[in-house]
Amino acid sequence: MPPALFSVEFSPPRNPEGVEKLRATRTELAAVGPAFYSVTFGAGGSTRDGTLSTTLEIQQAGLAAVPHISCVASTRAYVRELLQTYRDSGIRHLVALRGDAPSGMAGAAGDFRYAADLVELVRAEHGDWFHIEVAAYPETHPQARTPAEDLQNFVRKVRAGADSAITQYFYNADAYLRFVDEVARLGCTVPIVPGIMPITNFTQLARFSDNCGAEIPRWMRRRLESYGDDRAAIRAFGADAVAALCRRLLEHGAPGLHFYTMNASAPTLELWRRAGLPVPRG
Questions:
Q1: 46 Cβ partners below 8 Å, 6+ apart?
Q2: How far apart are CA 153 and CA 147, in angstroms?
Q3: Distance between CA atoms of residues 151 and 31, nearest Å
């Protein structure tokens, strides 16, 4: 089995202060040597220019930048141009997503319906130049009609040409392990990397989780609720619980971990330390 790979995710900053903060965060995280730094693509392409500029800045800094590309509100002409820009910049790794429509635009027009369509285009026009990641949902995509349909949709993306996958965050290791087993029975054995969300703000986490269908287990939710506004207690408990999750996932064969940083370094670095992840020497 190849060594586990650990990566981090950023969102494009929306103002000059955010740009400077992200630069500092990137520098601090570079000390632990992430395999790559992915950059999200906002709902309906709302951060389209920011995704491009942030990705190119990371790449030009000598780090491995991995842009997200979304189907929603994207034309084939735009995607072709974007792919060529990334290729010309030496980028060889993408995250291909269906993406979310912005609020009030559920039917946002575009030339792609599913992420599999986007994967097919990348493969048809760029061969093996790009390593393509897709999304996986161990607890089922919130818009899927059934868990079985969601599994088939994931397998379809892989058969279209995806190399590996990154999951939505979760706190139930069994959901991830079961998902990996179920898609393997369908003949799909690409690496599926768990997405890891640090816990620093329970109110915010609960809102995110309700929107994206990521369950906060009852025992965890009750404990977090019990801390009220005690941010220090929430962070300490969250670091313990999520580090234990990271260790369990790796012990059961996860091919790596992908950290949703929320553009802050400290929570991810704390998890890195508590989970005993490798740090480059020198």
A1: 102
A2: 10
A3: 37
Residue 68 CA, chain-centre distance (Å), reads: 9
Q: Which of 160, 170, 172 is nearest to 205 (CA)?
A: 170
> Residue 257's beta-bridge partner residues?
6
The fold of 5-274 is TIM Barrel (3.20.20)
DSSP result, 150-198? HHHHHHHHHHTT--EEEEEE-S-HHHHHHHHHHHHHTT--S-EEEEE--
Q: Are strands 192-196 and 164-169 parallel, antiparallel or unpaired?
A: parallel
Is residue 160 within 8 Å of residue 119, measured between CB atoms?
Answer: yes
193 and 254 in contact (C-beta within 8 Å)? yes
How far is the first Cα of the chain from the last one, in angstroms, to the nearest whole number?
26
Catalytic pick among 9, 133, 139, 270? 9
DSSP 275: T
Show the tokens assigned to 180. Answer: 């990996």
For the whole model, what pTM was predicted?
A: 0.94
22 neighbors 47 (Cβ within 8 angstroms): no
Nearest to 141 by CA among 172, 99, 188: 99
What one-letter code names the amino acid at 142?
Answer: P
Find residue 37's DSSP bridge partners.
Answer: 8, 65
What is the Cα–Cα distance from 229 to 41, expressed in whole angstroms?
Answer: 32
9 is catalytic: yes
* CA nearest neighbour of 51 among 32, 67, 74, 29: 67
8-state DSSP, 4: P
Q: Model confidence over 94-148: pLDDT tens digits?
A: 999 987 655 544 445 577 888 999 999 999 999 999 999 999 999 999 989 999 9
Residue 217: the pLDDT is: 96
Tokens encoding 209 = 């989780």
Residue 42 has a pLDDT of: 66
